[in-house]
């Protein structure tokens, strides 16, 4: 059986070591790039699911149990903020940086740094401070994906909250300046009057 002429010419073009053979390399490279990028993106999205976050007992038995009792988990509007909503930036560049930083957490998991409730509590201030500093540095971007001064109607907030939010906006404060401990317990040795750096 003889192949149609254009298929024969195409095959010859791909296998002939000439200037046009670069087309084969480019085409294969392009297809491989698409497959790699699709696989990479799928992997990133899989690690951005709450099921992944609570896959280890350190998270499931400690901070997740605290979170389940908060307004971010169950509320009158039915809107739920999951682990990645608060702890992983949505923008690609910052997300990649956060994923690389998370490798330190994998190290702690692998070597049992926080594998018991007591060890977790012993390191809670250090871990919380690292996260608070990250949120402060990015102007609480993950909070602002849902809560934003620009969209707040201070007239329907309680007067104390409206007053504090108005002053915070004027002072250039960010959410984490006042809302530490809103989704997780504060570390037992936390002192609001101190600045922590780890």
Question: Beta fraction of the residues?
Answer: under 5%
* Global shape: elongated
How many helix segments? 11
Number of strands: 0
CATH architecture classification name of the domain at 26-147: Orthogonal Bundle
Overall SS class: mainly alpha
Under CATH, the topology of the domain at 26-147 can be stated as Multiheme cytochrome fold
Topology order in helix (H) and strand (E) letters: HHHHHHHHHHH
Please estimate the helix content: 55-70%
Distance between the termini: 73 Å
Largest sheet: none
CATH class of the domain at 26-147: Mainly Alpha
Instruction: Give the overall pLDDT as a whole number.
Output: 85
Radius of gyration: 25 Å
Uncertain stretches:
none
Please name the defining characteristics of this protein.
Multiheme cytochrome fold, 11 helices, 0% strand, mainly alpha
Question: Could you describe the 3D structure shown?
Answer:
It is elongated and about 80 Å long. It has a domain at 26-147: Multiheme cytochrome fold, CATH 1.10.3820. The N and C termini lie far apart (73 Å). The protein is mainly alpha-helical and 198 residues long. It has helices at residues 5-15, 21-46, 50-53, 57-68, 83-87, 92-101, 103-110, 117-137, 141-144, 159-171, 175-178. The chain has eleven helices and no strands.
Give a brief description.
With 198 residues, this protein is an all-alpha fold. It has eleven helices and no strands.
Question: How would the blueprint of this fold be written?
Answer:
Layout: H1 5-15, H2 21-46, H3 50-53, H4 57-68, H5 83-87, H6 92-101, H7 103-110, H8 117-137, H9 141-144, H10 159-171, H11 175-178
